[in-house]
Amino acid sequence: MTPSGGIVRFDDARPIALAIAREAVTEGLDGVLIRDVLGRFCLALDDRHRELPEEAVARWRAELTERLGLYAAPNTILRASELFAAEAVFDSPRILDEPELAGHFGPGRIRTLDNTVVGEDWSHVTIPSPLESGIQTARVALYGFKGGVGRSTAAYMLGKHLADRGWCVLVVDLDLESPGSGALLLNEEAAPQYGLVDHLVEFALRNAEGLDLVERASGVSITGNGELWVAPARGRGSGNAPYAYVDKLNRVYSDAVGGALPSFADRLECAVSACGMAVAERSRQPDVILLDSRAGIHDIAAIAISRLCDLALLFGSDNSQTWQGYGDLFAAWRSSGQAEAIREKLRMVASMVPDKRRADYLGTFRDHAWTCFSVLYDDLPPGDMSGFNPSPEDTAAPHYPIPILFSLDLVGLDGAANPGWSEQTFAQAAYEEFLDTAMRLITEGLQ
């Protein structure tokens, strides 16, 4: 049956398709239920050794089209005899037996085949446009080449810091594979029904209207007139069907062949904008959107830094993994002609700085960062000040580190079990310079 409200979402489509496929099993037919990279279903039936009942095929085609809505593939029924290479479907090594369609439903056998794709988008650096209201909103990406550098905790601290000073802040959890800031800022029961992953899936089929995507931060107390909102990576689901987070995640990065549907980059930009507009509709336009990006050289990081933000805070520790990773990334920007466009968006953050040898550590960090960032700077002869080539000591340069101090009290901290932890002395001391500097950079960008 069709879900209440008449709109089929990703979670609803699979049970509907399985129910229709059961009819083919009872007819004694073998086939494959195929889900494409957008989550749409079609049923491939094997007529190589048996004639298909035309009346039943027409009925299944109509049912799939009508009941799946936008989650019906353009051609809902495929015949093996009409496929160029039927064995690529029916003998695919990725094909799986479906327990729900086991033999007790009938003599036939229906199996399932899922299709997913991943792309990339590092090479198109742009300045983000304001949201539709025309009110300027700062977009800040928090990114670490390696995980475990405190990026999500920093997003929590910065979001609270800005909100405590009267700003309206939205934190968007873009770490889809390992959600972080959403869980820090929201109690599970207070999460919105849908998350970023739902908008990415539904928007591909022009089906994203009316999604509940944002909620006020419930895991943090805000003082003053500011607001802190959260757009989590995953929602809590509707309860009408299982929340298939992994199945959705397998599809969000796909780009449709031939450009018939929006690219992943376009969908991600629209998702972030939709979250900002959702906050504006429920309260007021966000002053700042913090994009908690995932680690690594990945699609989301590429788009968050290259396309969605006007300030990117790059987190790292002083080790070879950090500099090799950022070096590869910067070299790619240089070779693709993006150095000039990207470099002034960037600012390095030195995470987990040891307090007892802070000065020495930051000095070494700064020198390594300058060497790494130099590939993005202009090659100038000595004494030539016409281009962009800041010295290692230039405190306003992209490479000059903003420190976050290391504290054992922050290691393995369970924020939900320790309310008010961000107000304690150890947290304030660790993040003081980072918060002040980040707020100044954001303020300057809005002027």
UniProtKB/TrEMBL annotation:
The lineage of its organism: Bacteria, Bacillati, Actinomycetota, Actinomycetes, Streptosporangiales. GO terms for cellular component: cytoplasmic side of plasma membrane; cytosol. It comes from Spongiactinospora gelatinilytica. GO terms for biological process: negative regulation of cell division. Residues 141-276 form the CobQ/CobB/MinD/ParA nucleotide binding domain. This is CobQ/CobB/MinD/ParA nucleotide binding domain-containing protein. PANTHER family: SEPTUM SITE-DETERMINING PROTEIN MIND HOMOLOG, CHLOROPLASTIC, SEPTUM SITE-DETERMINING PROTEIN MIND HOMOLOG, CHLOROPLASTIC-RELATED. Pfam families: CbiA (PF01656). Keywords: ATP-binding, Nucleotide-binding. SUPFAM superfamilies: P-loop containing nucleoside triphosphate hydrolases. GO terms for molecular function: ATP binding; ATP hydrolysis activity.
